[in-house]
C-alpha cells in the first residue's frame, strides 16, 4: 500500500502547521498530519482482532489493498505540544491522529469513534490505546465527541467518573476523560458519524469512472438501458460496459462503450459499478469489484429482501461483503442515482430523462414512481442536484442521504418520498438537524390500512393518519399529500425566500380566483394583509405595476400572491415583466397563478448560468389554491426555523443507569417480558423522577379499613381490573372514603357492582390516599413500527378517547414540543381555567412529558408506558395510576460486518 492512496482532505479548522515529519520511537519516520474523516473511515472499515499481549491489531478481513497478514500498529509520538497517534501497516502509515495538550493535562482526540454497542469496536480499542498512551505520557485528561443519542454510552462514562462536558449546537457532546492511573475500560462511542457518512456518500456520487455490469447488448433490457442512460446523460468520465458474453479483445464495444467480459479486465480504475446481473450472481460481481478497488455499487438487480427470506439472506450477505471491502451499496432493487453537478453529470438510473442541474435533491423510496416523477420534474423545469432511489436501502438509507445533503452545497431543498422511515429513532434526529439548515419536503405514503398489496415490504404505522403531519412538523419537515404538492412547494422554496410572517397580500384581476385564494388562506392559517388589490379583468400591466409597488413597499405584507388571468387580447408578457421588476430584490416571497402555468414561465425567470431558473424567479401554479397551499407550507416551515426556545431539558436527577439495571434485572426475572406490578412500576419510575401516589392492594373490608386508617383518611377505594376500567356504563370505579363506615359501605357496594374476585387470593381493589382534586390527564408512549417511540398526551375521559383528542410527538421532546403537546388538544381549555376554574400547573405536565420522553429514549425495552391517571391542579401533578410493560428488545441490530468486531 502506498501513501496517498486515500483521500486526505482535512476537515475545516485544522491549521496547516500541524503537518510535520516526525521520528517514531523505533527510529522510523512518519509524516504527521491531523487525522481526516477518510482516515477514520478507513480505520473503521477494517475488522480488527486484538492480540491481548501486544498492542498489535490484526486485520483479518482487510481492505483489498491489505492482505490478511497485515498488522496495524498504533504508535504514539510526542510532537511539540501535541501527541500524535500513528497507525501503520507494515512500513506504511495509514492514519495519523493528533491529540493536543493544553497546559500539561488536557488532550483532544480528533477521531471518529465507532459505535461499539456489541463487543469491542475498533473505536473502543483506539480509545483504550489512547488512554494507555496518554497515561504513559503523563496526560490525565482528554476530550472526545459523542453524539447525544448514545445515552447508554454517556451513562457508562458518567458511571466511570468521566465528565460529560458541553453540548454543542449540532448536538455533539464533549466527554472529558480523566485517565485513571490504572486500567481504564471504555464503553461505547460513536462520533463524527455524520461527517463520515456524508463523506462516503459524496464519494459514491462523484465517480470519475463507471462500469455497468450486465451491460446487455439487447436494446430494451435493463442492463442496456443503464448503459445508454449513462452515456446519453453526458457523463464526462470513463465509462465501461461489462458483459460476460463479450470477447476480451481491444476494440470490443457495446453501445459504443468499451466492453470487457469482467470488471477485472478493465485496465483503468473503476470508482462506481452499476450492477444489473441476476441476483444469484451479484455476490461474485461484488468480489470482482472489491478486487478492482471499486468504491461504490448501485445494485439495480432485484431478487433480494423484497422476495422473502431467501432474498433477505442474500441481501445480508451482499451488504456484509461489500462493506467488508469498504464499499457502500445503493440498493439492491434500486432505480439508481443521478448527480447533475458540473463535471459529474451522472445518470446511473433507469430513467432516460435527466432533469437539468438545480438546487433540489430528491430521495425516492419507490423505484416505480421514480421514472414518472423525474419526468414530471423535467416537465416543470425544476432543477435537480442529486436523485437517489435506493430500492431496498440495505446499506445507504434515506437517513444517510439526509446527512449527506446537510453539508452538500449544491443542495438547497430536499425532497423525500417515503414509504417507511428506516431507523425511526435516527430519522427524527437527522431530519431535525437537516431541516434546521434547509427545507425538507416529505411525502409519506403507507397510511392506508385496507387493500394494501400482499407482500408489501412497507411497515404500516399504527398512528392516526393526521398525526403523521404533526410528527413531521415537529422535526421541521414539510409534510405534503401528493407528488404535485411536493413539487409545488419545491418550486417555491427553490426560488423564493422564506416568508417572515403570515400576512399575505393578493394582487389579482379575477374576483373568482381571489375568492378561491382567500378560502384556501383561511383554511391553512394565513392572514390577509389589508384588502386584496382587486383589479379589473382588463387591468393593464401598469395597473398591476401600481398595485405591486404598493404591496412590496408595505411593511405589513410578508408575502405576495399574484393572480393574472389574461384577457382575450393578452398582454401577459408585459404583466410578467412588470411583476418580475417589482419583485426583484425583494425579500418577500411571491407566488403567482399566471397563464395557467405550473413552472417558472420564461418571463418570470431569473436565468442562472446553466439557463435554469435562479433564485428570485417567480414560480407560477395551475390555480391559486396550489399557490397559496405552497405558501402556507413555506410559512409554517419558516416559523419552525425561527423558533428559538427549542431546548431539550437536562433533567439532572434522572438516573439512567439505575433504570437500565432495573430493566436488566427485571428481564432476568421475566425473560419473555411482562407487565410490571405496582412496586416495580414505582421503582422504575422513581429513577426518572416520576412519583406515583402509592396504592395498596386489599383483599377484604377489614384490610381496607386498616389500610385507610394507616394512611389517614381521606382515601379512595378503587377497583383495578382492566375490564372495569374500560366500561363507560359502570359507575365510577373508585369511591371517596371519609371514615370507616364509609369504607365498609363502599366495600359492600363495590364488591356487589364489580363482582367478587374469581381468584380470592388476588386483590381486585386498592386503597390510595386521596389526591388533591384536579383535571385528569393521560400521558403514554407508543412504539410505532414506522415512527419508533411516540409520546402522547390527552385529557382523560370517554369523550376525548372517542374523538381521538390526543397530541403526539417523537422523543426527545424540546421545551417547545412539550408546551405544544399540552396546548394542541382540543380539550386543553379545561387546563387553562375554564368557566371560572383555576388554571392548572401546566409546567408540571410538561415536566412529566419530558421525563416520560427521556425514559422511552433511554430504555428501549420499556415497550409500554402509561401514566393513565394523572390529576393536575394548580398545585402540581399527581400520578395515580400507571401501566408499564417491559419486553426483551428483539429488533435486529443494524450491524454490518464493518461495524462490528468479531
Ligand atoms: C421498480 C423499479 O423499476 S426500480 C428497479 C428495480 N430493479 C429491477 O426492477 C430489476 C429487475 N430485473 C432483474 O433483476 C434482472 O435479473 C436483471 C435486469 C438484473 C438481469 O436481467 P436478465 O435479462 O435476466 O439478465 P441476463 O442474465 O439475460 O443478462 C443480461 C446481460 O448481462 C450479461 N451478464 C450476465 N451475467 C453477467 C455477469 N456476471 N457479468 C457481466 N455480465 C453479465 C449477459 O451476458 C447478458 O448480456 P446480453 O443481453 O448481451 O446477452
Automatic annotation (TrEMBL):
PROSITE patterns linked: GNAT
Matches recorded under SMART domains: CoA_binding
Record CDD domains: NAT_SF
Residue span(s) of domain N-acetyltransferase: 30-184
Superkingdom of source: Bacteria
Entry-linked Pfam families: Acetyltransf_3, ATP-grasp_5, CoA_binding_2, Succ_CoA_lig
Coiled coil regions, renumbered to chain: none
Gene3D superfamilies: 3.40.630.30, ATP-grasp fold, A domain, ATP-grasp fold, B domain, NAD(P)-binding Rossmann-like Domain, Succinyl-CoA synthetase domains
Molecular functions (GO terms): acyltransferase activity, transferring groups other than amino-acyl groups; ATP binding
Record-given protein name: Acyl-CoA synthetase (NDP forming)
Organism (species): Kribbella pratensis
